[in-house]
Amino acid sequence: MIRFAFAGRCSTEDLQDPEASRNWQLTRAQALIKPAEGQIVTEYFDIGHSRSLPWQRRPRANELLQALRDPNRGFDAVVIGEPQRTFYGNQFGNTFPVFVHFRIPLWVPEVGGPIDPDNEAHDLVMSVFGGMSKGERNRIKIRVRTAMSSQAQLQGRYLGGRPPYGYRITDAEPHPNPAKAAAGQRIHKLQPDPAAAPVVLRIFRLYVDGMSAKAIAAQLTRDGIPCPSAHDPARNPHRSKTAWQQSAVRAILINPRYTGYEVWNKQRKEERLLDVDDVTLGHRTSMTHNPAEAWIRSNEPAHEAIISPDLFDTARTVRQQRACTQGRQERAGKRSARPYVLRGRIRCTLCGRKMQPATIHNHVYYRCGFNAQ
Length: 373
What we know:
The protein is α/β, with parallel strands linked by helices. The protein has helices spanning 18-33, 59-68, 83-86, 91-101, 120-155, 178-182, 197-208, 213-222, 228-231, 246-253, 309-325, and strands spanning 2-10, 38-47, 77-80, 106-108, 113-114, 167-174, 186-192, 263-264, 267-273, 283-289, 296-297, 356-360, 363-367. It has eleven helices and 13 strands. Residues 330-335 have low confidence and may be disordered.
């Protein structure tokens, strides 16, 4: 009897059922090793991890790589259920040499048994499946983004995420997909929050009347109005809840969703190499803000407006005029050339605001921007 370790992977990003995915991969693996009287004695199955992650960064796959080094590993070979689930891009070429080094056969259904390290056809087949896996992931991303773009633009559909301050999520109607509707799923839309919507309107009016975003934040804090994170603490557990921030006021002033139109694609996922000197470590995914011209706006109003389009346009004009007066580009994001190592890491003990760095006579100071405190 040959003792096998079963390796597989399932992502939950596209709503896969982890149990069903594991079962069909395991069934294929068992069918492959049955004629050789093989028996699976242990499993290394990752759930919820993207195929683009290299084996070293998948918890269970990394455990398998470490087990290969152990002479008392308890299995004689490794079997997988589907190469496209297990290997992505050039991962096979970076991983299989470890199996060869420790003389552990790797069985694959598409090869019909163990991979022969000296067989060029086997290497070509696995490289093709790695490329197909990468292509499949890219196609899924394109389809999903295109569908979401059309839903936001043509249908004005709310596509999830935290509602902007001033709105709350409410039920809209049954899901248009019959299967999802039969399962009880429904779509949602934004509805003005009775407590926060008047604050949004007040912010726009104060700004148009001449107050700066910083002054508005200070005024709202003095008036005892809960800041966005304090108003909805369940969705903002990671944020300070003690005072209004200038950045929160600015985010409200530039958000066109308050005019009643749905807006999508304000952010995107961006992949960056973990180590440019070792690309086998893969990428780190982070959220990045898109420029305003890349936002997708609904063709028609999708929810009740809090402010009029005219008031929003007036606030934008005022913001642009102030930027020109101050000799800077609007929202340029230009940072000081001086490195402040504690920037964003120190908060005022009285109001909870981030302390602002400044250099006076070649000495660095951090002070609270809320002068009233």
